[in-house]
Amino acid sequence: MDKRRNDSRLATVLMELPSRVNLQSLSRSKVLAMSVAGLIVMTLLSGCAVTTQSYPTTLVQSVNMEPHALQTAGIAFITPGTVTGQEEDKQNLALAFTDALKQAHPDLHIVSLSETLGIINKEGLAEEYKKMYEDSRLTGIFNRDTLRKISHQTGARYIAQLKLGVFTQSTQSLWGFLGFNLSITEITTLRLFLQIWDGENGTIAWEGSQELTLSSNQIKQSPVSFKDTVERSAQELIARLFPAPAQPLAINSPK
Question: Would you say residue 254 lies in a domain?
């Protein structure tokens, strides 16, 4: 309440400033400087809130995923794939996505990437796991026997792999005056791919791609974090992975 009152008083003073100051006694440069200062303050008062616009494009295909299959069988995440130069984002990608999935479906049996890797190493499957990945780079196929072992050891029938195609961030100054950037646009683009394999028979059960562009207008430069971007993209894919059941049509009985 005090902040609003102070902002209102400041705006009133700025509006009354021309009547209180003898403009004839000021040089033209001083008048211009005062006008610019007032414009900046008014912009800050009216535009401090960050506005973010989201532009998602989602494509999905359910190959042989039965309804409610994940709720009963569970899902385990394996090492994500990335484009060259983004290798360090693998763990962050898997962590952000699994966090979003856990928040959306807390009752789901989810084996995170770190848990899956720990189980694989504990059970002596590291070399076999490595070979599966090396072969998949050439064929796009995960070995059925290795998938079955991972599924058995993690207790999750379905095995999920994320792939990061693109992650870019750029900054644009919308407009400025006398060297002042009064508005900055942060543009973040993410392209994500999710593929879910059936650990029992080695087939692809579900896959989806999601391209998300976030445009954030703000006064102070503050890029959207990688984690926040992944979580927003994950929410789009999760909504398609767990579609809401169709509501029955209401039938009005005659009175």
Answer: no
